[in-house]
């Protein structure tokens, strides 16, 4: 690929993100004129406009950009590390672990707002470790040889099983809640941008400011890890420590997003493979941009296509992500070895 | 010729089923002593509170029997038909297909009665089964346990989003299908059971009658053809029987996962994999396990009840994980 195209794709995607932010702020009920929106953003108090722009739509759009980018990065970390395009945190149960823990927090101690982050982090980490541990134990059990370039599906299958148990847990917790709270929790479980506030934006932005440089520092090692555990070890890479660091970064990225916007189904799964389709190789930059595009586009569609009802972004990403997963399944030679 | 082990296993399962039924009648928020429970059955007196409790639990127990039979047989049939040890109506997406079809029916057509739910459930389960099987077959490695499980999970996740969207569009629809969200046995009465019964019985007969064909299929399609089995016809008939069973179970209890996975494997361990024994014994063990799970759900976190669908998932997931470990040996 030429250097020009290498630059052109991310630039085009960045423009799409910016365009979607503008659309998200201006379009809806009521419509906002662009000049009024600009004045509101610059700090002028305009009755009927300032609140809509500054306290409702702009924070939602920013959470969409940051959260989508975080999910795209998190998905690509897992997919690259586990050498399986299906092994994103939302397919192998990590995201569901985060949301199950958050629901537990809501049910047990009435956790809400940013306090949910501790629950999503704990749930996501425990689930990731559980899935990786069971899948590794399976490998030691004598199936699916490791080694260079060889991938298999055990993470995905183990994740499907663990996710089913977590879903049962969520359903149980929901059934113990009173109706109103259960309804709110179910709404949260879908994932949407409508609860976005500036403090949440600040937390998410702070997390990305710390985590993105850490991830950038780890990308080189991740590329070595892709050569296979044995090769990586012989090149002097501390394989288990690298893996743990990557899992930590991936889980932190998705947990912060789940705490702020709920589990936006399949965004983490979709961003990586689409980025690879566009660039011909895995690309973290493109995956982050695509995550933002997916979340914002789903949110704009949900806000405007369903009449008076605001359809949460998570419903749309979930309904569109599943066919894409099935399509990936069809075109891959085996589930794991797909290119 | 039934061996001694088989006789013992059958006797043990019948005993377990009897105990499960008795516990299901007696245990709960208000525990009824055995003598009173028996009295309530043979000399029902509606003025006695204990008798009324037993009467309501009788409906629940009968629903449990029906659902347990349906799901265990459907699981055994699916596993045999697809030669897939991980097959289960929940894992392969049939449950979610049925639930999504009911949600769509409620939202678009305003369905309300159990019969309408049931028809929608049959259609949804059938459509989901066809989609999952077609997509897994279209993948380059074919319909393996792995591709089927992943396709089933994807269909389940996507349909879950669709159901969420419908519920958000129409809160009233949520109220009408709330009983459908989680698998539970307490929501149906004898009239509902009677309406489902013909479909259930038809499904049971179809699957039980396919035991020999399933044994032949276990040898592979070519060998089965060589033995004079019409593979395509058997798969179609079995598929219809399984959809009848799953649709009946879902319309009675909502989506109950993992029972169809666990029971046939447990029976295979005890009585071997000959479908002429596997299917009838699964038919006894299935309701026993489901009723015991239901009873456990009533006492595990008083005063609330844990729905039976939650209990079977908690029971089934460890089994699923163990099966993953051994699937190279189990897979045919």
UniProtKB/TrEMBL annotation, chain B:
The chain crosses the membrane at residues 6-29, 61-78, 90-110, 117-136, 148-169, 196-218, 238-266, 306-324. Pfam families: FecCD. It is found in: Cell membrane. InterPro entries: ABC_BtuC-like (IPR037294), ABC_transptr_permease_BtuC (IPR000522). CDD domains: TM_ABC_iron-siderophores_like. The keyword Cell membrane applies. It is a multi-pass membrane protein. The keyword Membrane applies. Keywords: Cell membrane, Membrane, Transmembrane, Transmembrane helix, Transport. Belongs to the binding-protein-dependent transport system permease family. FecCD subfamily. This is FecCD family ABC transporter permease. It comes from Brachybacterium rhamnosum.
């Amino acid at each position: 690929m030429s250097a020009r195209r290498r630059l052109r794709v991310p630039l085009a995607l960045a423009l799409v993100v910016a365009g979607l932010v503008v659309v998200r702020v201006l379009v809806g009920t009521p419509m906002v004129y662009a000049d009024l929106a600009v004045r509101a953003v610059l700090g002028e108090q305009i009755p009927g406009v300032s609140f809509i722009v500054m306290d409702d739509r702009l924070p939602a759009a920013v959470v969409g950009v940051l959260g989508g980018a975080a999910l795209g990065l998190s998905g690509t970390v897992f997919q690259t590390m586990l050498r399986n395009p299906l092994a994103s945190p939302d397919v192998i149960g990590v995201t569901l672990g985060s949301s199950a823990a958050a629901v537990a927090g809501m049910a047990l101690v009435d956790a809400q707002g940013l306090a949910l982050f501790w629950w999503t982090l704990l749930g996501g980490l425990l689930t990731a470790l559980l899935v990786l541990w069971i899948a590794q134990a399976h490998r030691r059990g004598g199936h699916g040889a490791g080694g260079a370039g060889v991938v298999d599906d055990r993470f995905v299958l183990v994740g499907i099983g663990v996710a089913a148990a977590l879903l049962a847990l969520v359903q149980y917790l929901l059934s113990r809640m009173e109706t109103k709270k259960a309804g709110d929790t179910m709404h949260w479980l879908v994932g949407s941008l409508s609860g976005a506030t500036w403090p949440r934006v600040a937390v998410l932005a702070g997390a990305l400011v710390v985590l993105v440089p850490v991830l950038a520092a780890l990308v080189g090692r991740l590329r070595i890890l892709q050569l296979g555990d044995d090769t990586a070890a012989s090149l002097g890479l501390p394989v288990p420590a690298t893996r743990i660091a990557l899992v930590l970064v991936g889980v932190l990225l998705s947990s912060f997003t789940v705490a702020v916007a709920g589990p936006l189904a399949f965004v983490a799964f979709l961003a990586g493979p689409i980025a690879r389709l566009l660039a011909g190789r895995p690309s973290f930059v493109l995956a982050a941009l695509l995550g933002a595009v997916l979340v914002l586009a789903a949110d704009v569609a949900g806000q405007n296509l369903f009449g008076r009802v605001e359809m949460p972004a998570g419903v749309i990403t979930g309904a569109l992500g599943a066919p894409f997963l099935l399509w990936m399944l069809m075109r891959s030679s085996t589930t794991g070895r797909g290119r | 010729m039934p061996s001694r082990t088989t006789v013992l296993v059958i006797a043990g399962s019948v005993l377990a089923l009897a105990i499960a039924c008795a516990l299901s009648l007696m245990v709960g928020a208000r525990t009824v002593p055995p003598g009173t429970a028996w009295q309530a059955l043979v000399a029902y007196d509606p003025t006695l509170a204990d008798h009324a409790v037993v009467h309501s639990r009788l409906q629940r127990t009968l629903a449990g029997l029906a659902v347990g039979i349906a799901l265990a047989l459907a699981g055994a049939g699916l596993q045999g038909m697809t030669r897939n040890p991980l097959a289960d109506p929940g894992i392969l997406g049939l449950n979610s297909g049925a639930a999504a079809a009911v949600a769509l029916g409620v939202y678009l057509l305003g369905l309300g009665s159990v019969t309408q739910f049931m028809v929608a459930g049959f259609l949804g389960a059938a459509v989901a089964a066809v989609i999952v099987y077609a997509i897994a077959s279209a993948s380059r490695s074919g319909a393996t346990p792995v591709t089927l499980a992943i396709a089933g999970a994807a269909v389940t996740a996507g349909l879950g989003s669709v159901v969420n969207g419908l519920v958000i569009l129409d809160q009233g629809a949520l109220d009408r299908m709330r009983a459908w969200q989680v698998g539970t046995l307490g929501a149906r009465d004898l009239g509902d059971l009677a309406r489902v019964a013909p479909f259930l019985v038809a499904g049971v007969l179809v699957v039980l009658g396919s035991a020999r064909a399933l044994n032949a299929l276990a040898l592979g399609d070519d060998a089965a053809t060589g033995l004079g089995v019409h593979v395509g016809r058997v798969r179609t008939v079995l598929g219809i029987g399984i959809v009848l069973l799953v649709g009946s179970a879902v319309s009675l209890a909502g989506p109950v996962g993992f029972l169809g996975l666990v029971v046939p494997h447990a029976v295979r361990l005890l009585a071997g994999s000959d479908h002429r024994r596997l299917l009838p014994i699964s038919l006894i063990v299935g309701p026993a396990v489901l009723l015991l799970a239901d009873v456990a759900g009533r006492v595990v976190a008083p005063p609330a009840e844990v729905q039976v669908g939650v209990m079977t998932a908690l029971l089934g997931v460890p089994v699923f994980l163990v099966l993953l470990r051994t699937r190279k040996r189990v897979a045919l």
